[in-house]
Design goal:
Blueprint: E1 2-7, H1 12-15, H2 17-28, H3 34-54, E2 58-62, E3 65-68, E4 71-74, E5 78-84, H4 86-93, E6 102-104, E7 112-117, E8 126-130, H5 134-147
Parallel strand pairs: 6-8
Antiparallel strand pairs: 1-2, 2-3, 3-4, 5-7, 7-8
Length: 162
């Protein structure tokens, strides 16, 4: 049973990439004939749609922990949890980003949640996960961590501002 579920689907402007790419492919292959141009446009347009659909990670929080894309963080290893606004997310993905962090980011999502990893055996210091509903995701993670018995852990459930 999931307490939180979010799929990071592309927003409307990103879907415009498919027809734009199809038109560019069609126009650039016109010298090879109309059939080739149309085929190139269709293939490129469908390829862009397939790439956008293939790159949709799922965020899931349940009693066991957090699944972000292909990775899973057990509830007992959830550390500090922090919801980030757009500016804080931009900083977290830029100058503050550590090379050893686990990142699930999509450019069409402007906010995120930083989740500390409370496992001494894990070299990953934290996860940075894009979310359109960072406050709701943070609340679900806090509840998950508390249910796992880590109430005494660090909890910074606050939205960062500029």
């Amino acid at each position: 049973m999931s307490t939180y579920l979010e799929r990071l689907r592309p927003s409307a402007p990103f879907w415009l990439l498919a027809p734009v790419a199809a038109v560019v492919a069609t126009v650039s292959t016109v010298p090879f004939g109309a059939a080739v141009a149309v085929a190139a446009g269709v293939v490129v347009g469908l390829a862009v749609v397939a790439l956008l659909l293939a790159r949709v990670p799922e965020l899931r929080v349940d009693t066991a922990g957090l699944r972000a894309g292909p990775a899973f963080l057990e509830a007992e290893h959830l550390g500090e949890i922090e919801a980030l606004d757009a500016i804080a997310t931009q900083r977290a993905l830029g100058p503050q980003l550590r090379a050893d962090a686990y990142v699930v980011h999509r450019p069409w999502v402007r906010t995120a949640v930083r989740v500390g990893v409370a496992d001494e055996a894990d070299p990953t210091p934290y996860w940075l996960v894009s979310s359109r509903r960072p406050e709701e995701l943070a609340r679900a993670l806090l509840a998950c961590r508390e249910a796992a018995g880590r109430e005494g852990g660090q909890a910074a459930h606050s939205e960062q501002t500029g």
